[in-house]
């Protein structure tokens, strides 16, 4: 049995997981340093890097033990680690540890693109996945529409030209005096408000499949300044509806032009209830299967990195020990 | 005992290996800011040269700082990975004490001030007395070179300066009337190793940052998450 250990430290989560060649998850451990960042309203890179250094070994050890493996001589076939994109000081911790482990165990290892990892997440949950697949990958750092012919074969159709979707949530949450991260709190509030309370624009600028969210944030600021009486829940509902509308419209446009069998959501914003509902409605309308990841698969985890790593290692695409971290590694540049 | 030492507190990437027969090997890669690229290949090279498998490493000695944060993190992450994967012991030493031991072995005696470049116009400093072995005189701290120079200029005690932090502010340190210089830019990985073998193993080694994370933080919200 092929078993791969995945390691993920691209942002504030320290994660390790073990999966097999059938994409069964044997263990998945995620240790977040998010509480340390909340007072700052965003991830503080230096804090994240420091936290990874103290948590990486215990997290990897636990993932191995949870999978029934001996940390000294685990019956693994390889190691996969996120080598970009992400915070450089965070990426380096996972990458350095992965190299050391590969050296200690005399195993091949591979540097994986974090976004490609997100694209592999549906494979860990759906056994009946049919290709091609259209994936909407939305998180605090990224917003992309990706056409996938098969695992590892992806074409980026569009992406955000300014803020990421999750970033827009965080910025609006901060403007409204809500906590960080903003997504879950706005989603909760939106359920109690009216999405028609504020007239907000659904930006369709940019290329056909590209997104833009900075204008929406500005519109929220203006609208709430002009109307002090509007309830917080109504602002949240109106903002969430406008943002979701843009994502769904672009996704619709991609489905009109590409023949696919299913639609998948990926990334932290995939946990958003309005987006899940909107994408499900859209897919149903097109007669397509919807792949909605569980919450643990939406957010950063190492099982998805192990899955992408398994794919590359099976193709003999191991990395050299001299690999560098690539903080700005674009999905288009993944070969 | 087969011991590996990792030294990444300064721009250099340095490492050493001592095998159970007492043979010592070391490697110093002077490429600035390439710790990630150079460290594991370097360690692999030393192991191959010694015909040793990584599994046979019994102890990993790591310089836990103070020094460049990125280098320290790469070094520590590599050390904990190696210790976990090879079931080896872990021991931390500090960059400043490694410099002090390096100076002592080279014959420097009397009072020694070690300075490691902290960037942003500051240096990490600690003083030692090398008359009988290496005696610690104060705690490691972060300081302005000007303040250190002014302090020693008022002090009639002869003092030797060493470290890349001293070299960076060489002109200022030359103002100290009783000052002597021992050139040593990179804490010696062999010295770190020799120091590390004398100490009890630790369950966890923490980096010695000497500067709060929020003091170096940039509060950008453009940082990606999930
Ligand atoms: Zn992510």
Account of the 3D structure:
- The complex is a heterodimer of chains A (335) and B (226).
- By secondary structure, chain A is α/β, with parallel strands linked by helices.
- Chain A has helices at 34-37, 45-66, 88-105, 114-125, 165-175, 182-190, 214-226, 232-257, 273-285, 295-298, 303-314; strands at residues 3-8, 13-20, 25-32, 78-84, 109-113, 133-138, 143-150, 153-159, 262-266, 289-291.
- In chain A, the strands form two sheets. Chain A has a five-stranded mixed beta sheet with strand order 3-2-1-4-5, sandwiched between helices.
- In chain A, helix 9 (273-285) links the parallel strand 9 and strand 10.
- In chain B, helix 1 runs parallel beside helix 2 and helix 3 (95-105) packs across helix 7 (189-197).
- In chain B, strands 6, 7, 8, 9, 10 and 11 form a six-stranded mixed beta sheet that branches. Chain B has a five-stranded mixed beta sheet with strand order 3-2-1-4-5, with helices on both faces.
- With 226 residues, chain B is of the alpha/beta class.
- Chain B has two domains: 3-95 and 187-225, Nucleotidyltransferase, domain 5, CATH 3.30.420; 96-181, Nucleotidyltransferase, domain 5 (2-Layer Sandwich), CATH 3.30.420.40.
- The complex binds zinc ion (ZN).
- Zinc ion binds at residues 114, 118, 139, 267, 300 of chain A.
- Zinc ion (ZN) is lined by residues 114, 118, 139, 267, 300 of chain A.
């Amino acid at each position: 049995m092929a078993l791969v250990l995945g390691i993920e430290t691209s942002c504030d989560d320290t994660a390790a997981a073990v999966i097999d060649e059938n994409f069964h998850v044997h263990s998945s451990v995620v240790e977040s340093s998010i509480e340390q960042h909340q007072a700052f309203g965003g991830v503080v890179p230096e804090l994240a890097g420091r936290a990874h250094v103290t948590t990486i070994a215990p997290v990897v050890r636990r993932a191995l033990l949870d999978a029934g493996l001996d940390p000294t001589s685990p019956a693994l076939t390889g190691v996969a680690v996120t080598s970009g994109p992400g915070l450089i000081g965070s990426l380096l911790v996972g990458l350095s540890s992965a190299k050391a482990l590969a050296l200690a165990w005399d195993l091949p290892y591979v540097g994986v693109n974090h976004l490609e990892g997100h694209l592999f997440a549906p494979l860990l949950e759906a056994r009946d996945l049919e290709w091609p697949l259209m994936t909407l990958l939305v998180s605090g750092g990224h917003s992309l529409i990706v056409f996938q012919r098969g695992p590892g074969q992806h074409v980026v159709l569009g992406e955000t030209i300014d803020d990421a979707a999750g970033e827009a949530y965080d910025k609006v949450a901060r403007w409204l005096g809500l906590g960080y991260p903003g997504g879950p709190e706005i989603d909760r509030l939106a359920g109690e408000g009216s999405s028609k309370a504020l007239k907000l624009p659904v930006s369709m600028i940019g290329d056909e499949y590209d997104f833009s969210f900075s204008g929406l944030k500005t519109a929220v600021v203006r609208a709430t300044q002009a109307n002090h009486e509007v309830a917080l829940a109504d602002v949240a509902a109106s903002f969430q509806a406008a943002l979701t509308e843009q994502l769904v419209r672009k996704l619709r446009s991609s489905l009109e032009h590409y023949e696919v069998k299913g639609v998948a959501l990926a990334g932290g914003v995939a946990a958003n209830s309005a987006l899940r509902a909107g994408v499900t409605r859209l897919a149903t309308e097109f007669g397509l299967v919807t792949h909605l990841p569980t919450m643990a698969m939406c957010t950063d985890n190492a099982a998805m990195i192990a899955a992408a790593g398994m794919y590359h290692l099976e193709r003999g695409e191991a990395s050299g020990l001299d690999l560098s971290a690539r903080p700005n590694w674009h999905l288009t540049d993944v070969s | 005992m087969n011991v590996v030492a990792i030294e990444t507190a300064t721009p250099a990437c340095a490492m050493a290996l001592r095998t159970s027969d007492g043979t010592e090997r070391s490697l110093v890669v002077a490429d600035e800011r390439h710790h990630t690229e150079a460290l594991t290949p370097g360690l692999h090279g030393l192991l191959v040269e010694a015909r040793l498998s990584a599994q046979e490493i019994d102890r990993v000695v790591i310089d836990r700082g103070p020094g460049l944060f990125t280098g320290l993190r790469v070094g520590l992450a590599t050390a904990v990975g190696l210790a976990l994967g090879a079931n080896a012991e872990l021991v931390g030493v500090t960059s400043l004490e490694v410099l002090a031991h390096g100076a002592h072995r080279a014959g420097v005696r009397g009072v020694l001030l070690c300075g490691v470049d902290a960037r942003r116009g500051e240096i990490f400093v600690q003083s030692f007395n090398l008359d009988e072995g290496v005696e610690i005189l104060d705690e490691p701290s972060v300081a302005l070179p000007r303040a250190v120079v002014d302090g020693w200029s008022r002090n009639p005690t002869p003092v030797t300066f060493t470290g890349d932090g001293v070299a960076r502010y060489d002109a200022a340190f030359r103002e100290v009337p009783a000052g002597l210089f021992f050139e040593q830019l990179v804490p010696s990985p062999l010295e770190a190793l020799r120091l590390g073998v004398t100490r009890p193993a630790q369950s966890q080694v923490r980096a010695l940052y000497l500067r709060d994370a929020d003091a170096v933080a940039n509060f950008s919200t453009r940082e990606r998450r999930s």
